[in-house]
Structure formats: C-alpha cells, structure tokens
Amino acid sequence: MPNISRWIEEATDQVAGLPGIGRKTALRLVLHLIKKSPEEVTRFTQSIQNVKEHIKACQECHQLSDDTVCEVCKNPTRNQQLICVVQDFRDVLAIEQTGQFNGLYHVLGGLISPMDGVSPSDLNISTLLERVERKNVQEVLLALNATMEGETTSFYLYRKISPFQIKISNIARGVAVGGELEYTDEVTLGRSILNRTPYEMTLNR
C-alpha cells in the first residue's frame, strides 16, 4: 500500500491473515474500526484476547470450551450412549443449530489425508475408542464431510469401532457429495441426522 499510514498497513496485514479475508476487505474492516470509539475498540480487542487466553479443548470430546469439560458433556439430559463424530468445532455448531441431535460429540481435529501428511495418529481417535469402551456407548454416528478424506476417515473408524459390536451409523446423504457440514442448511442437515443409516449400507453402495 503506497503512501498509506504504516499503522493502517500493519493492521491490514494482520486482518488479511485471517482465512477468507482479502486485502481490500481487511482494509475496509480496519477503516471501520478507526471510526469506532476507543472503548469499543478496547472491548473488541479484549474479546479476542479472552478467546485466546481462556478457551480450551474439552478433555472428553475435544470441542472448544470455557471449562475443562464442555457444557454438552456435562449435561445429564443428553443421551450418553450416543456419540456423534465430527471433524471440528464448526461441525458441532452446525449440528446443534438443527436441534435434532441430543447425544454427545467427539471432535477428531481433522481428517485422514495422506496427501497432506495427516495420519490416524494425528487425530483424536484413540480417545474416541477409550470413550466407546468405558462409557457404555450404544451407537456412534459418523458425521464427516462427504469428501474423499471424510469417507476414508469414516471407513477407518468403522474398522476400529466394529470390534465393540455396537451400532455404527452414517448421516443420510442429504448432504451433497463433496459438501461440508458447516455449509449445509439446517433443515437438510437435521434430516440427514434423523434419517441416518447403518454404516454397512454405505459400504454396499
């Protein structure tokens, strides 16, 4: 940015480093913040700092939480015998917004992807198997993206969970092939959860 304040340029560089934000959008956001009062800017920056300092991973399901155990895992009204496996926290938010799921979650923290150097040992798979064994879980719902990486991860989990002889289901494919859960509308995602099918049916397609 020629002939521009170095402070604006530095702030724009930082905002532009966020995913999905180009430099023009970053500059517009910085200029918007300049118009705000010092108190408003302080509240904004403090809220970001609080997220960095206080948010942690739930020791049970690995989703983001204010405490060591998240509100979902602590809630006695949730179905403790049903675990929904998702890729990351954004998928938890998407499913919760449907209001159609009352079980627990398990966040893998990614998907198996040899091309990207992500192996099963890089994901929260061992803790999932531990939960299945010690929590008397009756069903594991695989709610992973309908991509090659998602299908590979689902099959790997199916092989690992099968020896426990519990129900393993898959969300119904109202979610388009190649689609990601966080971008699926609430109605479609909700129906996909309600109409989930045994994972074995996926293998026979």
Strand content: 5-15%
Number of strands: 7
Oligomer: single chain
Overall pLDDT level: 89
Helical amount:
40-55%
Question: What's the arrangement of secondary structure elements?
Answer:
Blueprint (H helix, E strand, L loop, with lengths): L5 H11 L6 H13 L2 H17 L1 E2 L6 E2 L5 H4 L4 E8 L2 H10 L4 E5 L18 H9 L4 E4 L5 H14 L5 E4 L15 H9 L2 E2 H5 L2
Helix pairs in contact: 1-2, 5-8
Give a short overview.
The chain contains nine helices and seven strands. With 205 residues, the chain is of the alpha/beta class. The chain has a five-stranded mixed β-sheet.
Q: Could you describe the 3D structure shown?
A:
Helices cover 45% and strands 13% of the residues. Helix 5 crosses helix 8 (186-194). It has two domains: 6-54, Helicase, Ruva Protein, domain 3, CATH 1.10.8; 70-203, Dna Topoisomerase Vi A Subunit, Chain: A, domain 2 (3-Layer(aba) Sandwich), CATH 3.40.1360.10. The strands form two sheets. Strands 4-3-5-6-7 form a five-stranded mixed beta sheet. A two-stranded antiparallel sheet has the order 1-2. The protein has helices at 6-16, 23-35, 38-54, 71-74, 89-98, 126-134, 148-161, 186-194, 199-203, and strands at 56-57, 64-65, 79-86, 103-107, 139-142, 167-170, 197-198. With 205 residues, the chain is an alpha/beta fold. It is elongated. It is built from nine helices and seven strands, in the order αααββαβαβαβαβαβα.
